Every structure is written in C-alpha cells, then in structure tokens.
Amino acid sequence: MVLCQICGNEIESGGSVCPYCGGVQDITPKTGSVGGVFHRVVNLELGRPFVEGAMQKLRMEIENSRQQNLRVLTVIHGYGSSGKGGAIGIECRKVLEHLQARGEIHSFIFGEDFRQKSGPTRDLLRHFPQLGTNINLNKGNRGVTLVVL
Q: Which terminus of the chain, N or C, has less C-beta within 10 A?
C-alpha cells in the first residue's frame, strides 16, 4: 500500500488513480540531477493524530529527510471539513514559518500558491524541474504545502 499524493488515503501500490478522491497519481520516480531521490510525500493526517502528534511527526520527517539529503517534501496536512482550514494545517503553517525564521528550512509554498505563474513556484521549478509534473501543481490544493529543505 502507498499513500495518495492528493488526499493521503492508502491506495494499492502502483495504482494510478485514488479510489477516494479520484486523483491521478504521479508514479514516475523523482530523481535529482545526481541520480538520487530529492522529493517525497509526508502525510501528517495518517492515523488521524491530534495536532501535537502531527507536529512532532512534521519535525521528525523534516529532520529525517535532511539526513537522507532530500530537498523537497510535499506535506499533506489536510484542509478540514469546516471550510476554514483544519487544525493540523493551521498549526503546520505556523511551525513552518517558525522553522524558516530559524533557518531550519529554506522555504515553503502553500498548495494554493503552488502554480506556475507564482514567483516562488517558478524559482522552485528552476531548481527542481522534475516538480513540473507534480500532481498538485496548478490545483490550488489547500491541504498540502511544499517544503524546501
């Protein structure tokens, strides 16, 4: 089983369409110019944790990814059903702002801002052109954030 790149639900390995959200999955390997993996998806909603547990997982995933020399994370934090943003998503964004201010991450792009006409996205795509095929590009997905380590 793998996680849907859009909604974070478990889907069958190798599946190209999520049965829950209908999202088409990008199943091409993500490699950097040196041949190593540079990107992965982290689902903070998996297991339906409380906010504190999700933030611990976020910090742990950032640290583990840094140790593995990954450069970009797509963090699935969800948007919540209220239409105002979910508690995990709101807190995730606060934590990322704090980590950026401390220099622990380079930058981040909210899913709704991850579009080709956005300056920060253009800069990201210049450094990592492989993200041009990312499933969330130009979708306005408020439930994800891209984190540049």
A: N
